[in-house]
Write a structure and sequence with these properties.
Helices cover about 85% and strands about 0% of the residues. It has one domain (about 1-130). The protein has five helices and no strands.
């Protein structure tokens, strides 16, 4: 019985945290109209370059998997360098986006933003990419 209560409590807590992390930044940080407009513009600015770079990274990761299956050490070494470079480029895009967003926020919102980022990083499922960047 106690085990069931604990599991239910953990499930409810995880669900609530997931909902909070899936909120838009506007609602999670209580952005005013102008801040929301600025954050939307910042996110739009980075969305296309990030998606394009992510697509290239996914292609290169598939090549790396094929090299591993073939046990081709030369190709594996080359692909690991390529995928590592792409991973770093994606991380840098995310860092730049976050820096621009931080400049729009007030001090109290900055703390919420860091908590929001931490929650997103810990999530699984559709938000799993954020763990890497």
């Amino acid at each position: 019985m106690l085990n069931r209560i604990l599991m239910t409590g953990l499930s409810v807590t995880f669900f609530a945290v997931s909902l909070m992390a899936d909120q838009s930044l506007k609602s999670a940080l209580s952005l005013d109209v102008e801040q929301a407009r600025q954050v939307d513009a910042i996110q739009a600015k980075y969305r296309v370059p990030f998606a394009a770079k992510r697509q290239v990274q996914n292609q290169e990761l598939r090549k790396l998997r094929r090299a591993r299956i073939a046990n081709d050490s030369k190709q594996m070494a080359e692909q690991e360098q390529i995928t590592n470079r792409l991973h770093e480029e994606l991380r840098q895009i995310r860092v730049n986006e976050d820096e621009e967003i931080r400049r729009v926020l007030r001090p109290a919102q900055l703390q919420k933003f860091e908590e929001y980022r931490k929650l997103r990083k810990e999530m699984i499922g559709s938000s799993r990419d954020d763990k890497d960047f």
